[in-house]
Every structure is written in structure tokens, then in C-alpha cells.
Amino acid sequence: MNYKTDVLIIGGGISGLTLAIKLAEFAPNENILLITKEELEECNTFYAQGGVACVWNEKDSFKKHIQDTLDAGDGLCNEEIVGEIISKVPERINELIDWGIEFTKNKDGAYDLGREGGHSERRILHVNDLTGEYIEKTLIRKVKICKNVELKENMCAINLYTRNLKCYGAYVLNQITNEIHNISAKAIVLATGGAGKIYLYTSNPDVASGDGIAMAYRAGATIANMEFYQFHPTCLYHPYAKSFLITEAMRGEGAILKDIKGNQFMQKYHHLKELAPRDIVSRAIDTELKKTGDDYVFLDIASKKDPEFIKTHFPGVYNKCLEYNIDITKDPIPIVPAAHYCCGGVLTDINGMTNVKNLYVLGESACTGLHGANRLASNSLVEGLVCAYNCAKSLSKKITDIKIKEFKPWEPGNAIPSTEAVIISQNWDEIRRFMQNYVGIVRTNRRLQRANKRINLILDEIERYYWDFKIEKNLVELRNLATVAKIIIVSAISRKESRGIHYNIDYPNKERIARTSKIEKPW
Ligand SMILES: Cc1cc2nc3c(=O)[nH]c(=O)nc-3n(C[C@H](O)[C@H](O)[C@H](O)COP(=O)(O)OP(=O)(O)OC[C@H]3O[C@@H](n4cnc5c(N)ncnc54)[C@H](O)[C@@H]3O)c2cc1C
């Protein structure tokens, strides 16, 4: 079936929903269609815990927030973009408050401003440790009353339709009917989130398979800084537990890291031990795991705090771990570092504009220059908010002048129903395992070259099978995972230094001049 709409938004996290709401306001005569791969709530935004970084009181200043962002970005941020985004955050947060978000307050009735690693001031607004869930639910409530916005769930975008660096729409798999629709639009916006599923361990939900970045790459968009994948040091390790973060606050309360024999190790890596910065702790755990060949290390709060304290301070972690028969008041928690945030993405300006005409990218899929070589904690939700607002403003001024052009239906190829799901799952497992081990927290030239050889084999295999098999979500995701994995590997190989979160033992120092890495088709 063919659909026509004025603006097609792919993705329903903070970026996609904010864009839809603001565009409905600024361009009330345009039709907006927003699609999501699974249910509307399933996205990185929903799982965000810490909060949103915002200069909120007179003790703090934009200058300080900007400097903290630049320091984290380690020479690779675009200073102008950092200034523009950070200074617009309070306006957007006030609007969220108007829309119904009730950020947590302290006893005096003032907002309880949290402090996180890398921030020189208390500036994290939060709704306990469920900030993302509250934001997502509020935005969903708001978007549902916008008359010119239509929402469609379980629609998996497969590919964009582009000619000569101009985008006309997208092919989309309806996962309920198994039909492939072509949706033509005046403007197409990718707000598809991160790509954590490329790694064996990730804090991201299953939808985060880098689809938007891969689709944009195939359409000819420039991709930047993909070697900078941020890892969170402590994710629950359990065969049935997917993507559960153990909050850093637990280390703040004295929890210690131990190998599986019970030996502490952080003293070997940093004088602050467990309280060292996030990337140092991740690197230390990764080094221990590579040295011992073990699958996990332990985070032990039980021997440091009494059961009552643990239950009242960490009810979420306590209850989640109990589901897996781990009583954290008695037992240490098995953990691994996990892929958390994609600092690179599709190169855009502050309005989400790419080098492909009528194609826009927002949020975690975009690389605006805010994060540089490492993201400052709680700076990503606000980037989504500000850039989505800007995108709505800029699109509303030009959208009426663009004509919709219909394009040819999807050519199904042989469309053989896949009887060999094993090929797909084998390739998935392979990619995620070698990305974790060779292109993860600690890299070497040799590991990167090994990964490159393996990804080439898999890409070749996928290319051959892809066109024979009937299109299914797993296959779409596999192809995207492989494409984004290749982009990360090539970007990591091209960086002959260690900077921010890219750490290569063979190039331990920084180059004199900081350089943004850019990837364009072909490799
Ligand atoms: C556990 C966790 C904790 C975090 N904590 C914080 C925090 O405290 N503060 C902070 O600032 N950031 C935090 N982050 C990061 C932040 O949540 C994300 O960067 C941000 O939510 C990304 O928003 P987004 O709109 O770009 O994408 P998302 O919210 O991930 O939304 C992506 C959307 O794209 C859709 N999609 C993907 N592929 C397709 C496709 N092929 N077809 C159709 N739809 C598709 C998905 O269905 C989804 O609707 C955290 C992330 C995680 C995982």
C-alpha cells in the first residue's frame, strides 16, 4: 500500500515526539505521520534514569555547563553548537513542565538538582530515577491530542528512497500484516535512537539497532565520530536479564568491585578506586575480564551496607535482582560494562539538517557536535529536545514549498520465507561478540583488523542472503547492525590516537590537532 504524508517522522522517543508536537503547532495545515518499530513506549528515552542537565539557579551559569561539556568532549565538540544548545535548554525544560512533568522537589519545595560525574554544579533535574519514563508518557499524552499527527506502531522502516542525494520517502514493513508500504513525504526525519545492540552487552532496549544511521548512510548521508561509543560500567550480568543498569549511585554509597575470586582490583587503576570516572572504571573491568577470561565481575554492596539501607536506597535494583534470585542484601551482583550511548551519528546542523535534501536526523542518531569524543552525563535528552524544536521551526517555514513525489513500490526479490533463521541469529551473535571483544572499551590495531576481516565476511554473506529471504524485522536489523558495525570499525581504525572514550593501546597519546572522523559511501 502507498501512503502520502507531509512529514514522515521515524521514531517516537523524546526527539520524534517533541518534533511532532511542535510541528503540529507551527505548521497546523501539514499532515504528520509518526511511526515506531515496536510499541510507542519502547525506546531509549523510556529507560533514562539520571535526568536532564539544565542551568537552573543563579549559582550555576551557561558558561560552566558549556565548559563541562567541552571538557568531556576532549577537544572534539563544536563550540558554537554547544553554546547554542546549552543556552536553549531552560526554555525547553520550562515547556516540559508546562506540559505536565513534575520534576522531583526537595523539602523546601525547590527542584532537587542532582550532581553527576563531570558536572561542576548541581544541575540534573529528575523524576526520582524514572525521568525518561515520565518524559515519554507525558509526550505521548500530548502528541495524542495533536489533530494533524497520526501515530502508527509496529512499523519498521527498511530503507529510504533517495535519488541524487534527495530523499522522497521510506519503505516500511508493517509487522502486523507483513506488507511493505512506500510512504512518500515532503520531509523525512530519522529519530531512531542509538545502536547499543551492536554490542553483546548493552543498556539499550532491543529497538536500538542503529537503523536510522544505517539507512542514512545508504542514502548518502555523512556519518561522523562513530568510534566514540560510550560504555556504562555496571550492567547486570544474567542469561535472562536484558539491559538492566545498576546505578552509579551504588558505588557512590560504597559498593566495591571484585573479581569472581573475591579480590578487589580498582586500587590498581585509579586512586579514587570505585569512584573513578565512568570510562576509567569501565576500562578497568574490561582489562580484568580480558586478563582472566571470566564473563563478569562482582559489585558488592551487601558487605558494606545493612539490608534496610540497601532496600530503601535501591528498591529498583533490589527488586529487579530478586527476580533473578540475586538477593543484593546478601550476595554480590554479577556485572559487566555495557554499550550505553552513541556519541557519533549522522552529521547534522542544529536543526537536524543533513547533506541529503529533505532528510533530517535528530537525537541519538545525529552527530551535531555537542558531545565530541565523550558525552557529558544527562546531556542527551536535552539535545533531543532543543534540536527537535529547532527542526520544527525550520521545517515549518519551508514545508509548504516542497512537493511530494511518489516512488516505485518495493521489489520483493525472490522473497523466500526464511527456513534458516539460524543464519540470522548466528550472524547477530558473531557481530555482537566480536564488537564487544575487539571494538569495545579497549582497542588495539590487531583487534580492529580482526574485526574488520570478520565484518567483511558477514556483510558479504548478508548481501547474498538478504535479497533472497522474505523481509523480516530481524533481517532488516541484522543488515543495519552489520553496516553500523563496519562504520564503527572503519572510524576506529582511522583514528590514530586515544581521545575521549576511544582508547587504543597502540596509540596511547592524543594527536596535536583534534579531528572529526567522517565516513561516506563507499567505505
Ligand atoms: C538505560 C538508559 C539510561 C539513560 N539515562 C539518561 C539520562 O539520565 N539522561 C540523558 O540525557 N540520557 C540518558 N540516556 C540516553 C537517552 O535516553 C537517549 O540518548 C535518548 O533517549 C535518545 O532519544 P531519541 O529520541 O534519539 O531515541 P529513542 O528514545 O531511542 O527512540 C528511538 C525511536 O526510534 C524507533 N525506531 C528505531 N528504528 C526504527 C525503524 N527501523 N523503524 C521505525 N522506528 C524505528 C524506535 O521504535 C523508537 O521509537 C539513557 C539511555 C539508557 C538506555
* Average pLDDT figure: 93
Bound molecules: flavin-adenine dinucleotide
Poorly predicted runs are none
**Main sheet?**
7 strands, mixed
End-to-end C-alpha gap: 34 Å
Helix-and-strand structural type? alpha/beta
Separate helix tally: 14
Radius of gyration: 22 Å
What order do the helices and strands come in, and which of them pair?
Blueprint: E1 2-10, H1 14-26, E2 32-35, H2 44-47, E3 52-53, H3 62-73, H4 79-98, E4 124-125, H5 131-143, E5 149-152, E6 155-163, E7 166-174, E8 180-190, H6 211-218, E9 223-224, E10 229-236, H7 249-252, E11 256-258, H8 278-292, E12 297-300, H9 307-313, H10 315-323, E13 333-342, E14 345-347, E15 359-361, E16 366-367, H11 380-398, H12 421-438, H13 445-466, H14 473-494, E17 518-519
Bound molecules: flavin-adenine dinucleotide.
Describe this entry's structure for a reader:
The protein has 14 helices and 17 strands. The protein has 523 residues and is an alpha/beta fold. The strands form four sheets. Strands 1, 2, 5, 6, 7, 8 and 15 form a seven-stranded mixed beta sheet that branches. The radius of gyration is 22 Å and the shape is globular. The protein binds flavin-adenine dinucleotide. Flavin-adenine dinucleotide is lined by residues 10-16, 35-38, 42-45, 47-52, 131-132, 155-157, 191-193, 203-204, 207, 211, 245, 341, 363-364, 378-381, 384.
